[in-house]
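Q: Please design a sequence for this.
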């Protein structure tokens, strides 16, 4: 989501302005990726979802974009890292990324699926949380199946369901039906804004800054959302919101 000019302070104290050109390049690149992967259903290459109709013309266009779509993403990522390093040292940058990403992966490598799932939940990554739970005992796997279903991750849910059937597990919940649309007017406009920012993974202070309100107000909106959706935490709220087609 694009914002107005926001000063960035590098280590030397000099004020920098946001690079809007890079923002628009990011929008273009990810928009292109969405169209590219949508088109995969209509070409001859292997893909998860295929249509009976194939387009040779579309395939030629996609072959052209295929040459530089990933280099473009790497370019944007590298530029983002370069700008980030203007405001922090390499050690600070690496430390921030390691604390956020390395810990849950390290826990999974160690085989501690329970701790990894808790860490993914803390980070607000429900799919990764379910993937960790799917490595656990039967209650954890059933919990993972429920999360996959709530997220609409049909392939992951199907694979886990097959795994459970293969091992003779009985009483597996049946596949969920398409969700019914929820009356979004139950949530206020501000609550819907907060819910969408939660889906972006923003913390309470970040949401407060984005919406120009206090952290206490953000917490009040969050509590109201939880109450109206009948949930207790962010992961459950996002799962319920996707189930009700709110986000």
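A: Design:
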């Amino acid at each position: 989501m694009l914002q107005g000019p926001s000063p960035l302070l590098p280590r030397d104290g000099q004020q920098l302005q946001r690079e809007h050109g890079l923002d628009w390049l990011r929008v273009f690149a990810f928009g292109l990726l969405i169209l590219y992967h949508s088109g995969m259903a209509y070409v001859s290459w292997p893909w998860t979802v295929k249509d009976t109709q194939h387009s040779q013309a579309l395939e030629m266009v996609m072959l052209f974009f295929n040459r530089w779509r990933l280099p473009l993403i790497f370019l944007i990522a590298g530029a983002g890292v370069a700008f980030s390093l203007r405001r922090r040292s390499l050690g600070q940058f690496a430390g921030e990324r390691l604390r956020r990403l390395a810990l849950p992966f390290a826990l999974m490598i160690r085989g501690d699926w329970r701790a990894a799932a808790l860490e993914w939940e803390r980070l607000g990554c429900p799919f990764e949380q379910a993937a960790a739970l799917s490595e656990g005992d039967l209650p954890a796997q059933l919990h993972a199946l429920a999360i996959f279903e709530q997220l609409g991750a049909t392939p992951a849910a199907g694979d886990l369901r097959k795994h459970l059937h293969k091992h003779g597990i009985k009483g597996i919940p049946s596949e969920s039906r398409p969700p019914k649309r929820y009356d979004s007017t139950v949530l206020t406009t501000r609550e819907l804004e907060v819910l969408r920012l939660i889906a972006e993974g923003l913390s309470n202070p970040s949401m407060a800054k984005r919406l120009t309100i206090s952290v206490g107000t953000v917490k009040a909106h969050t509590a109201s959302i939880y109450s109206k959706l009948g949930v207790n935490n962010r992961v459950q709220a996002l799962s319920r919101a996707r189930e009700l087609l709110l986000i």
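Q: Thanks. Anything notable?
A: The chain has three domains: 20-85, 101-166, 184-243. The two ends are 15 Å apart (CA to CA).
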